[in-house]
UniProtKB/TrEMBL annotation, chain A:
Cofactor note: Binds a copper B center. Heme A3.
Keyword Isomerase tagged: no
Gene that encodes it: qoxB
Highest taxon, organism lineage: Bacteria
Annotated compartments: Cell membrane
PROSITE patterns noted in UniProt: COX1 (PS50855), COX1_CUB (PS00077)
Main location: membrane
CDD domains hit by this protein: Ubiquinol_Oxidase_I (cd01662)
Organismal lineage: Bacteria, Bacillati, Bacillota, Bacilli, Bacillales
Name this polypeptide is given: Quinol oxidase subunit 1
UniProtKB/TrEMBL annotation, chain B:
Region (Disordered), start-end ranges: 262-314
Keyword Methyltransferase on entry: no
PROSITE patterns (alphabetical): COX2_CUA (PS50857), COX2_TM (PS50999), PROKAR_LIPOPROTEIN (PS51257)
Organism: Paenibacillus brevis
Main location: membrane
UniProt-recorded name of the protein: Quinol oxidase subunit 2
UniProt subcellular location: Cell membrane; Membrane
Length: 647, 314
């Protein structure tokens, strides 16, 4: 392979990206060396097994990916702003909508949700860490390796260009001969293994490590949502694993699972993809429901209305999520009977989702609503998400879907579900739990300004797309002629996209400003909240709780504050904590190189790194590491320091 | 007062939106299939607007009445577990709505999947529509003619489009005549359409299929039966035969303009149906036509029957 085939050439924007990647990397390396931070980085972050730090790393990565995916989105809106625009050519546009989809779903929404899970779940159930802290670090680093592998594709070798769904035979070697879709299959595979392990880890954590007295039906709603999400992950991700493996065989080793010739079945890919892909939607939406439940209850100063039906509706949603996948391709011609069945199962999801909406509304009934920034996102979610929901019911009707399918109507629908559903939720959760991690709140004035900019711009961007879709504009068109009449609405949508970008810039500025100037919170409970995570110090000590809490009901911290219950009974004892380890990050680096060599079919280095991965696994199996114990004296010192006493 | 003003605004917005609908392609049908779909869409919009209204009214009520700034400083919100009757209400009513919509969906889906009502006793005009790269080939086997990137049809006669692809999955869509259906390389799918108004309608591939996708449009030209016959006769006298070499060169091209021929490619490059389907068991003909739609079992595949795969492009 020649060097000019290896690097993507001939595109000024990509040259610019290459230069900025090199400059940024150099700046980071020089900065770390100059400020002598290599040791700190290695000891405190790269080798950490602390769920809070892993959560923070997930969230930082997700924010970076939000930026990457957002730039993709802006470029798309820029290209579509006027008819026959020349900002991007067809190939570049195709790569950008593909990476926009993959990055936003798999490398932004998922890690953001998983990051919040990491930060909150052990604290919320009164545990000191997750069940398998080392495995948790492996999960994060595998996700990170997958994300980085996917992201270098646009400067080295070329990005995937067959859509985030990678439908065959378009994604086969015959129609996509560049390495782009090799990147797709390998980077998603590596990140997917990490996600699957996260699922297992959190199921065990939630089932086995809850505080004394916290029965299943006394778990906070976010914990419930994560438990159900992890069960979905456990059943859905293996399907993706298999599909991606078959894709890799097809593209690298000449097998014919999904190709046009020799009995390959293109629709088999579509089925496998969506058997994973539809539950995936609920993997990112159910934790969001959990986050909103916490926030709405906290800022209405009321317990969650209809707790039991909230839990049951999530269980029903998770079951239904596995029997609706064919609604993504009603138009594949599987006849009225099959389409009818899938229409009914799909519409049925509206019932439990509606139950949740009404329960949130009635949580506010007779409440004392405070309009903090996280609450504003939660409140904006209800009306906007309901539009996404009802258009979902419209799309579920097979006969009508023949007219919506593949159009901007569909694009508008899923943005109306995923942005208020997931993106608003993770931002709300970020604002809400931020003081727990860092010991101060993000500035409310700036936060509200960012909120209003984002919420209004969102509607300006995506509402016009419903009408463009009904007017026959299909998705993934890189250009359109003036005679179609799509120009004005597209221009409005593009203006909205600029507004969204401004909103996110304000949000980033808000984080920066608050780090420097925001007043520190000493209470550990700045929101006057209800669940266990607020009963410990902020920032949280590494062992989370000096004494393991005892719980008698829902909202245990609220009860304790009202004077009805003693959370911490007993005295300090030695705390058993896991040791840090460099193995997860080394393993992930090996996975990264293995994936990279596989992408380019460089077999010898691929085999060597594959063997190195196996050696790492063997090393771990023979390792004896029983962790360490924090002595009582050290706990006492930490506790009094965190209470602000002089030692 | 404020709330009434809001309701009025919502209502008037709805009226404006619905009256503006007829200018939207999908809601401006020119045939019975698209008409059925347009009716289903408008019905569902009305039902969903009512659902939205209920949610929005409750939402505004809660937000205006129970804000902290309006409450007394010592007001302590009560502890509420939930209400059995309220919860039964908001489960039962959505179930009824979903049930109604399900009936509408299943009936209309059967309606648009078969020959439209009133046209069952007419013999349908069979047209094979095949996609290759970023163009469409239309073959009229009975008339023995073939066109590229445009298709002429008679009004008030059922048309049976048989769809397949010489490459990636595409989706055949003429919004004003009816919803889309996929065209795939290893099977034939069928789409029944009728045009009830003469005119020219935009048709396109709506499923992303690579670099030239945005320009993969065709024109459907609906004329009276008499004019259609005249057009057939005219083609027969003016156009030339489609040779295998010519067809191969058409397949290889990225885009081509409009073309017309007096023979079809089906004779030397048959559609992937019956014994030529990608996944048949080598069984009888009835069995294989069934399989066109739903056969997902790929055991015992007959590789020798994959003639169409020889014509795939690079």
């Amino acid at each position: 392979m020649k060097w000019d085939e290896f690097f993507v050439t001939g595109e000024p924007m990509i040259y610019g990206a290459m230069v900025s990647i090199v400059v940024a990397t150099l700046a980071i390396l020089i900065g770390l060396t100059y400020f002598k931070k290599w040791g700190y980085l290695w000891r405190e972050w790269l080798t950490t097994v602390d769920h809070k730090r892993i959560g923070i790393m997930y969230i930082i990565s997700a924010l970076l990916m939000l930026f990457r995916g957002g730039v993709d989105g802006l470029l798309m809106r820029g290209q579509l702003a006027k008819p026959e625009n020349g900002l991007l050519d067809a190939q570049h546009y195709n790569e950008i909508f593909t990476t926009h989809g993959v990055v936003m779903i798999l490398f932004m929404a998922m890690p953001f949700v998983i990051g919040l899970m990491n930060v909150v779940i052990p604290l919320q159930i009164g545990a000191r860490d997750v069940a398998f802290p080392r495995l948790n670090a492996v999960s994060f680093w595998l996700f990170f390796a997958g994300a980085m592998l996917f992201n270098i594709s646009f400067v080295i070798g070329g990005s995937p260009d067959a859509g985030w769904t990678a439908y065959f035979p378009l994604a086969s070697i015959e129609f996509s001969p560049t390495v782009g879709n090799n990147y797709y299959s390998l980077s998603l595979q590596i990140a997917g293994i990490g996600t699957l392990m996260t699922g297992i880890n959190f199921i065990v954590t939630i089932l086995k490590m809850r505080a004394k007295g916290m029965t299943l039906m006394k778990m906070p709603m976010f914990t419930w949502s994560v438990l159900i999400t992890c069960v979905i992950i456990l059943f859905a991700f293996p399907v993706l694993t298999v599909a991606l493996a078959l894709m890799m065989f097809d593209r690298l080793f000449g097998s014919q699972f999904f190709t046009m010739a020799n009995g390959g079945m293109d629709m088999l890919w579509a089925n496998l993809f969506w058997v994973w892909g539809h539950p995936e939607v609920y993997i990112v939406i159910l934790p969001a429901f959990g986050i909103y439940s916490e926030i709405i209850s906290t800022f209405s100063r009321k317990n969650l209305y209809g707790y039991k039906s909230m839990v049951w509706s999530m269980i029903v949603i998770s079951l239904l999520s596995f029997v609706v996948w064919a609604h993504h391709f009603y138009t594949m011609g599987h006849g009225a009977m099959v389409n009818g069945v899938f229409s009914i199962t799909t519409m049925a999801i509206a019932v439990p989702t509606g139950v949740k909406i009404f329960n949130w509304l009635f949580t506010m009934h007779k409440g004392k609503i405070e309009f903090t920034t996280p609450m504003l996102y939660a409140l904006a979610f209800i009306p906007i998400f309901t539009i996404g929901g009802v258009t979902g019911v419209m799309l579920a009707m097979a006969s009508a879907d023949y007219q919506y399918h593949n159009t901007m109507f569909l694009v508008a629908h899923f943005h109306y579900v995923l942005i208020p559903g997931t993106v608003f939720a993770v931002i709300a959760g970020f604002y809400y739990w931020f003081p727990k991690l860092f010991g101060f709140r993000l500035n409310e004035r700036q936060g509200k300004l960012a909120f209003w900019t984002i919420a209004i711009s969102f509607n300006v961007t995506f509402l016009p797309l419903f009408f463009l879709g009904l007017n026959g504009m299909t998705r993934r068109m890189y250009t359109y002629s003036e005679s179609t009449g799509y120009g004005p609405l597209n221009l409005i949508a593009s203006i909205g996209a600029v507004g969204l970008a401004i909103g996110f810039i304000i949000l980033v500025y808000n984080i920066y400003w608050s780090f420097r100037y925001a007043p520190r919170d000493t209470t550990g409970d700045p929101w006057n909240a209800r669940t266990l995570e607020w009963s410990t110090h902020s920032p949280v000590p590494e062992y989370n709780f000096a004494i393991e809490p005892t719980v008698t009901g829902l909202d245990p911290f609220w009860e304790a504050k009202k004077g009805g219950h003693q959370l911490y009974q007993g005295k300090f004892e030695e705390i058993h904590m896991p040791n840090n380890s460099g193995q997860p990050v080394i393993l992930a680096i090996l996975f990264f190189f293995w994936g990279f060599f596989m992408v380019f079919s460089w077999w010898t280095p691929a085999i060597i790194s594959g063997i190195a991965i196996l050696i790492m696994l063997a090393v771990r199996s023979f390792e004896r590491d029983h962790g360490r114990h924090i002595p009582v004296k050290e706990i006492q010192e930490t506790e009094s320091r965190l209470r602000g006493e002089q030692v | 007062m404020k709330r009434k003003g809001f309701l009025l605004a919502v209502f008037s917005a709805l009226v404006v939106l619905l009256s503006g609908c007829s200018s939207l392609t999908v809601l401006n049908p020119k045939g019975p299939v698209a008409k059925t779909q347009s009716n289903v869409i408008i019905f569902s919009i009305i039902v969903m607007a009512l659902v939205l209204l209920v949610v929005y009214v409750l939402y505004i009520y809660m937000l205006t009445k129970y804000r902290a700034s309006k409450a007394a400083p010592d007001y302590e919100p009560p502890h509420e577990e939930g209400s059995k009757w309220l919860e039964i209400t908001w489960i039962a009513i959505p179930v009824i709505i979903v049930a109604v919509l399900s009936v509408v969906t299943v009936r209309s889906t059967y309606a648009v999947e078969t020959v439209p009502a009133g046209y069952e006793d007419q013999k349908p005009l069979v047209i094979y529509a095949a996609s290759s790269n970023w163009k469409w080939h239309f073959s009229y086997p009975e008339e023995g003619i073939e066109t590229v990137n445009y298709v002429n049809i008679p009004v008030n006669r059922p048309i049976e489009f048989r769809l397949y692809s010489y490459g990636p999955i595409t989706s055949f869509w003429v919004p004003q005549l009816g919803g889309q259906k996929y065209a795939m390389s290893d099977m034939v799918t069928k789409l029944n359409l009728v045009a009830e108004h003469p005119g020219s309608f935009m048709g396109k591939n709506s499923n992303f299929s690579g670099e030239g996708f945005a320009h993969m449009e065709f024109e459907v030209y609906a004329t009276s039966a008499k004019e259609f016959e005249e057009w057939i006769d005219e083609v027969k006298t003016t156009a030339s035969d489609l040779t295998e070499e010519k067809f191969q060169s058409l397949l290889d091209a990225d885009h081509v303009g409009r073309e017309t021929f007096t023979s079809t490619h089906l004779e030397f490059s048959p559609a992937p149906e019956g014994e030529h389907a990608g996944h048949n068991h080598g069984g009888s003909d009835e069995e294989s036509t069934e399989m066109d739609h739903s056969e997902m079992d790929h055991s015992e595949m007959d590789h020798s029957e994959m003639e169409h795969s020889e014509h795939t492009h690079e």
